[in-house]
Design goal:
about 80 residues; elongated; about 0% strand; single chain; mainly alpha
Length: about 80
């Protein structure tokens, strides 16, 4: 709500919103874009990555890890 009220009224000529309108927008965005899993995606991604690594042979695993290190060094 605070972010909306600080930015959008000045940029787009929209009006300020109340707490309940902000809560409704958050629920609507969760339904449309993210569902209601709070933090579950990170856990699933971790297990997916672990299963993927376990299914690789040693050469593929080492090249994957090397590429991962290269990409993380760029950040």
């Amino acid at each position: 709500m605070l972010l909306w009220n600080a930015i959008l009224p000045q940029v787009t000529q929209l009006s300020k919103i109340s707490y309940w309108q902000a809560l409704g927008l958050m629920i609507l965005c969760r339904i449309l874009f993210g569902g209601f899993s709070f933090g579950g995606k990170g856990r699933n991604a971790k297990y997916f990555l672990k299963e993927k690594l376990m299914g690789m042979d040693e050469n593929d695993r080492s090249s994957f890890k090397e590429e991962w290190r290269k990409r993380s060094d760029r950040l």
